Amino acid sequence: MKDLFKAELLRFRIWAIAAAIVHLIALGFMSRLVDLAQQPRMVYQVFGMVYVVAGALLGLYQMGSYRRPSHWLNLLHRPLHRYRTASALFGAGAVVLLLAVALPIALIASYQETLTARVVDLRHWLLPLAALLLALCGYLAGAYAMLANRRYSVAVVMLPTLFLFAQAGGIAAIAVQLTVLMYLVVLVGIAFRPDLGEAPRGVGAVVATALPVQVGAYFLLWMLGIGYELAWTAVGSHPLNGGTPSEDGYIATDRAEPGDRLLAGITDSRHPDAPLWRQQVALSDVSVLNPMRNLPRRHQLTNTMQPPEFDDPERSVRWVFSHDRMRFVGYGTKDKQARGELGAGPAQGDFPGPALPYAGNIVFTPTVAYQYDEEQQRLFPRVALPAGEVFADPPHPVGENLAAMSNRALYFYPGREAANTLDPLRPLLRVPLPGPVGQLMSVDLIELLDGYLVSFAFTNGAWAGEATPYQQVLRVDGEGNVESVARRALGFDLPRTYTMRTWWLSPVLRELCLAAQQLFATPNPLDDGDIPPPPRYIVVLAGVLCLLSLLGAVWLTRRQAHGPLERWSWVLACGVIGLPALVSLRLLFPMREVVDRVSLVQVANA
Description:
The protein has 21 helices and 17 strands. The protein is α+β, with helices and mostly antiparallel strands. The strands form 4 sheets. Strands 1-14-15-16-17 form a 5-stranded antiparallel β-sheet. It has a 4-stranded antiparallel β-sheet with strand order 2-3-4-5, with no helix packed on it.
């Protein structure tokens, strides 16, 4: 085993050294231009995809060179168990990826920690491990795609795809990667056998192999539905591309100008002041608030859509938030020298959560918003939310006052006090959200003589059938009294049979995918909102497809080599899971060969 491991390392030593040098040079060049540790999430995602692809290419090449029948027989005809042979090969591949992927990242992190004033936190030291795990997952996926039966091996790509949708962060993200890696190890162990084309044996092996195949079939069937939308676009009647969406649909509502959207919300209102409000909307500037979908969390591996840093141009200082110190750390933008730390409030204490800069001189954590005073070089707390609430939109000017939105309510603060003092602000008005913030797309409002007219458009998720779209218009007076002015039901622009195909294709796999997406993740308060039950005809369609899958499995298993228990287990699985299970049954097991009895009789007589 040791000799095979060493031989495999020697085989790839040149490639490993060359890849490590190129990787180190690329990271070093980029680190001279930007701070790699403080980039938006998309940059991390691009790097992650590169590492997964690099690992997959190594796995495809390594196992592809052994998969040829003569080489494969020579490999396995050794005085070693097949698992020890696999451990030697894949252990060498893991060392290659350690040198080529993780080591350069660790060296760049060490450079930034020791030779620069940039912030390097514990979460950044976890990036080499995360990158190595991503590369290893791609490596094992590529190896499995080469070793397993070609009819279904490509479905293994669904396991690394989970990283694009997983909601876990920090150590929990590492746990997700380790879980996927362990699953891939099991799959490769099942596929690493003398007869590469043989169907999996045993309950555990069959279930482990069938699950990604079923998810892959589920995703492929969902993708085929896009052809319908492409044809709709080609005809020119698609409401998103060329067609005219319904005025009462969620597409037109989302696309409308803020004033037009607010006017549409009160068009049918019977409130006695509605005619006056329509005139005011036409003459006033309508303010818009758009809720965020994610907030920064401590020790998350990646940043949000923007880096946690802001500049003080007068002093040429850049302040970068440190998750370890829970403070901003400054360095000069010209001389790159350290400039000390910046804490919360006049006492320079720790921030209650990870901080992000916002428009102007506003910096906010999930629960408290601060204002940076350039003269005193201090961050003063201005807005603090009640316990149990987090920001959905930080405070910013709306007319003469400030407005901020939490996951539960809309707040208004005195603009004059905000402009003339640095004291904490108390809300003038509080407007409870008339619906879940996770389904809220936009808030439009105008300032009245006594209060505000506020429109809430709940359309987020309607395109996938995960929300019932509607528009709610409220009027809040100067005393904080909230009055419902109008509620406008919005229609579905796209056929629900099309948008909800993730449900009727397989309700079981849909729940499984949603659960995998939330694996090890903490609840997101900005994603609040219950998914409404599907319409009855969607449920009937899903039931009909499950019944057809069950009947198809009864017919198909009669033509495959199954024992009685195995056969009826597959029939039951197809009836519960639906079409993806039937597809996996056809791909996993070959059809039983049928021998012509007449030919056998002729041979016997001869």
